[in-house]
Design a protein that fits this description.
Layout (H helix, E strand, L loop, with lengths): L1 E5 L4 H12 L3 E6 L10 E5 L16 E4 L8 H17 L6 E5 L3 H4 L4 H21 L5 E7 L8 H4 L2 H9 L9 H14 L7 E4 L14
Parallel strand pairs: 1-2, 1-4, 2-3, 4-5, 5-6, 6-7
Helix pairs in contact: 1-7, 2-4
């Protein structure tokens, strides 16, 4: 299948692109950085997802994965507005089989930076909107909403022993996901899945179900 993925130069997006390539798909990447994947079936466009007039012409996209995102850097413009423009340009059309938006557990819990959680909450709602509109093509649209993932974006807390211990205290499985694990979820939701749609799939190691129950012993 022809797969378009945004944010493919590192972290989750790169892992997703590599998994699709391993499985014989043709992958097109959009990222503001230069390509970090070299493969015969990979085409890379170096462009910022916010630069709507300069987005490349890419026809016959069958799977769209909106992965590009940021924290504390015009979050709403990048994480939400650009995602909407990308989806309307490449995803809402008759060749589409699946759209997947990479959201965040913070969109469910609200427990992060204000504009970040607002942007990811918007992604969750927009996912349901798109699911309704592409159903006529027999296509699905879901959001995959990870909790902690071991990516360069999170190095500042992963490499801080005190902060890391606090985070592990809040995470029942006592670890974070690897980008490769999230890529497997992305592959399942876009290739294997044909019926689940309009859903916000939370994958966070149980962090969002944690609670502190205080009672007299």
């Amino acid at each position: 299948m022809k797969v378009l993925i945004t944010g493919t130069t590192q972290g989750i997006g790169k892992a997703i692109a590599e998994l699709f390539l391993q499985n014989g798909h043709n992958v097109v990447g959009i990222d503001r950085q230069s390509a970090s994947i070299i493969h015969a079936n990979y085409v890379h466009y170096q462009v910022d997802v916010r630069d709507y007039p300069y987005l490349p012409q890419i026809d016959n996209v069958e799977i769209l994965i909106n992965n590009a995102g940021t924290q504390n850097e015009e979050d709403i413009d990048i994480n939400l507005k650009a995602l909407v423009h990308i989806t309307e340009k490449y995803g809402v059309q008759s060749d589409i089989k699946s759209v997947l938006n990479i959201g965040s557990a913070s969109g469910h819990t609200g427990s992060e930076f204000p504009e970040y959680v607002a942007s990811k909450g918007g992604v969750m709602a927009y996912t349901k909107n798109v699911a309704q509109r592409i159903a006529k093509f027999g296509a699905t649209c879901n959001s995959l909403d990870p909790g902690g993932v071991l990516t360069p974006l999170n190095d500042c807390v992963v490499n801080d022993a005190e902060l890391w211990q606090q985070i592990m205290d809040e995470t029942p499985l006592k670890r974070w996901a690897t980008p490769e694990e999230i890529a497997e979820w992305a592959y399942f939701l876009t290739v294997t899945n044909k019926f689940c749609t309009g859903q916000n799939i939370l994958v966070d190691g149980g962090e969002s179900i944690n609670y502190h129950f205080v009672w007299k012993e």
